[in-house]
Amino acid sequence: MSVINKYFNKVLDFLFPPSCPICGAPVESHGHLCGDCWSCFEWIDGPHCVCCGYPFPDDYEPDSNAMCPVCAAGKNELDFIRAACIYDDMSRSVMLPFKHGGRIKFARFMSHAMIWALRDVDIKPDIVIPVPLANRRLFHRGYNQATLLAREISRVYNAPIDYDSVHRLYRPNMGHKTHAERARNIRGVFSVMDTGKIRGKKILLVDDVMTSGATFDELARVLRRAGAVAVYGVVFCRVVRAD
Ligand SMILES: [Zn+2]
Ligand SMILES: [Zn+2]
Fold it and tell me: Which ligand is nearest to the CA of 37?
């Protein structure tokens, strides 16, 4: 960082002191959470499936290659998935305003957490694809929350964001609960518009939340059919079944 940049940042910090994006408490640098808010999330920092990142119970001591039953059965279409935290009341309380209420300032700490979530996987994606929204949703919402999360991830991995190679059809959310129902509802909604940009590529998919994994699975299938050689996924939070 140049001297001028440093000086400029100091002036900015003086004029707009860094504050926690959730509660407004003073913090050391912009975009970071305060300790209290940070500790309210259930970060996935313990043992997890080597493939999809599914968290194992804290007292479980798996060997370093342990897989969850879904991955062990070969039912996960992605090479790796990681999530920063578990979907619970706290993550829901930031996800809803982020997704529907225009609180885009949350993107910074969320994407930093997602980069942290990828710490144990050795990936070199060629492109980053934010899971696309159907045009109708994009029109109503005004932005794709996955794209906001993808920006910092794309910068850190030095892999450009691909905004338009994959198109998503509008299909109403039917409130499906099971993986099978969700998988059926999502089948056929994605299509690759330009296979030339997908063929031979290692692709990192970015989304805000993973529920059953049906969206990632379907998108991965479509990308592989178009010639992608590897598909990874990262989300801010994931639903974990209460076993
Ligand atoms: Zn806070
Ligand atoms: Zn797994």
Answer: 1
